[in-house]
Amino acid sequence: MARIAVLPGDGVGPEIIREALKVLRQVAALFGLPLQFQEGIVGGIAIDHCGTPLPPETGRLCRAADAILFGAVGGPQWDSLPVDRRPERGLLALRKELGLYANLRPVKLFAPLVDTSPLKREIIEGVDLLVLRELTGGLYFGEPKGIGPAPDGKGERGVDTLSYTTDEIERIARIGFKIAAQRRKRLTSVDKVNVLASSQLWRRVVTETAKEFPGVELDHMLVDNCSMQLIRDPRRFDVVLTENTFGDILSDEAAMLVGSIGMLASASMGDGPGLYEPIHGSAPDIAGQDTVNPLATILSAAMLLRYSLHHEPAAAAIETAVDRVLEAGYRTLDIRQPGHTVLIGTAQMGDLVVEHIVRGC
Ligand code: IPM
Ligand code: MG
């Protein structure tokens, strides 16, 4: 019996998780996979109920699980809280406490969406890259951190610290090389070596680690240049390895290559249970309207089956079904192409994926 902790969170979280669960239940039935789902609260809803974004009970639930399916956290009603008490802190604490240092964000264009992206077809056709984002270091967690009096006595000073140790860089680099070895054997390490000390160490350690993986071609790129090359020539990338903040920014940018951030799934892995979540946020402005695209979460569920439960056929069945539904012209608002497609809501998208999974088997 595989135990899945389910954390819907805030905003559109419950709606997208509902659809991913529909899909998981269907593949579980078809492939004879015994899955057990246990729900927990996290983020803003947890602040409202328990006064903290990651209640101890949710932490325990996650630690005891084989994998975690996560929706989204945050919303305007909690925006005025200090950063260390905001809903996002619940997600960050989970990443840190579970040691989820490797964040995989595949950016692969589904062929039917080639005209959905604002970029030209000839640039994005065939895009298939993976952003590997370091997830437990860098500016997100470095100390010192906080707001205090300014040293000159005038007003305040906000401080974040960008730090990486050799070990932290080495372990994420190894994952990057291993993933690249199973793909097109090309790893681009992204840094800001011309300015940042942490990047100088990053580049040195990645270069050193490359010696263990002679079959993978390594190149280095500055992050500002990378943000341009992603738009200019995205097909040149296979695996993009980068630190926490750069990865956060570059993955949102890369989402536009495949039409919408509503399509981008992710897996966060470390030594314990993996966490699977869409890369988009809680989108409070469209919550509860049955308009959000559930595919990023459904595709995250496929990654959960692949990486945590090691069930490739079930993962592939979901991905094929998504492709077929898009091929048939069904679209949520974010990936709509006027004139050519059928606009549907969140729940119907989930139903159609389920239907195509059944048909495909
Ligand atoms: C992401 C999100 C999170 C991050 C937020 C919600 C804290 O933007 O997963 O990309 O910054 O890591
Ligand atoms: Mg982000």
From TrEMBL:
Lineage top rank: taxon: Bacteria
GO biological process: L-leucine biosynthetic process
Cofactor note: Binds 1 Mg(2+) or Mn(2+) ion per subunit.
The EC number(s) this enzyme carries: 1.1.1.85
Transmembrane segments: none
Binding of Mg(2+), residues: D224, D248, D252
Residues annotated as site: Important for catalysis: Y140, K192
Principal subcellular localization: cytoplasm
Residues that, per the record, bind substrate: R95, R105, R133, D224
Protein name: 3-isopropylmalate dehydrogenase
Organism whose genome encodes this protein: Candidatus Methylomirabilis lanthanidiphila
Taxonomic lineage from the root: Bacteria, Candidatus Methylomirabilota, Candidatus Methylomirabilia, Candidatus Methylomirabilales, Candidatus Methylomirabilaceae
